[in-house]
Design goal:
There is one protein chain. With 184 residues, the chain is an all-alpha fold. The protein is 70% helix and 0% strand. It is built from ten helices and no strands. α2 packs antiparallel against α3. The relative contact order is 0.13.
């Protein structure tokens, strides 16, 4: 069963707001404040992005903290609708740390919002393979990508996996209810 691209985008927007895949930064620095803003479920304030910018510009971060701050700023940019800037942040994070699973995951969401499900599908898979901290979100994102590409069977299995990983999360359950499983 295929759904329209607008339904997929709306589902992803709701999912992303409810379940960010930010990267923790310890301490009381601007990088930490950037992380905390990325953890919030509401739209970022302009000052939140400025804290991220300041953390990156001032320096003194380890390479992991720098990659994390780019991921977290990318999340804030997605929430502000700045998809190209968000993708650039995730790409920078990956150039610093190519094994950063949350950068793959969040870039996948940005690409889904840009209606690029083929590449998003690959990125969700990489996030799962690299042990994202939010595997339920990666499976959900991959399910929406599969569905946008017309692969209902694969979408069903990923929605089901997302639901198994996070049984109280409503979105996968709602999406699973749209499917009818038959035997042949």
């Amino acid at each position: 069963m295929a759904i329209g691209k607008y339904v997929v985008a709306a589902a992803l927007a709701a999912t992303f707001t409810a379940a960010p895949a930010s990267v923790r930064v310890i301490g009381s620095s601007d990088a930490r404040m950037c992380y905390e803003a990325a953890e919030m479920s509401f739209a970022p304030r302009p000052g939140d992005l400025q804290r991220c910018d300041d953390a990156i510009q001032v320096g003194g971060l380890t390479y992991q903290e720098l990659a994390a701050t780019h991921v977290n700023r990318g999340i804030l940019r997605i929430r502000r609708g700045q998809l190209d800037a968000a993708v650039a942040d995730f790409d920078t994070a990956l150039s610093i740390d190519p094994n950063q699973p949350e950068a793959y995951l969040n870039k996948g969401f940005a690409l889904m919002r840009r209606e690029e499900p083929g590449e998003a599908l690959r990125l969700f898979t990489v996030a799962i393979e690299r042990s994202t901290l939010r595997p339920e979100v990666a499976h959900y994102g991959r399910a929406t990508a599969y569905e946008a590409l017309g692969d209902a069977r694969a979408a069903y299995y990923d929605y089901r996996r997302a639901s198994e990983l996070a049984p109280t999360w409503r979105e996968p359950l709602i999406d699973l209810a749209r499917f009818r499983v038959t035997s042949r």
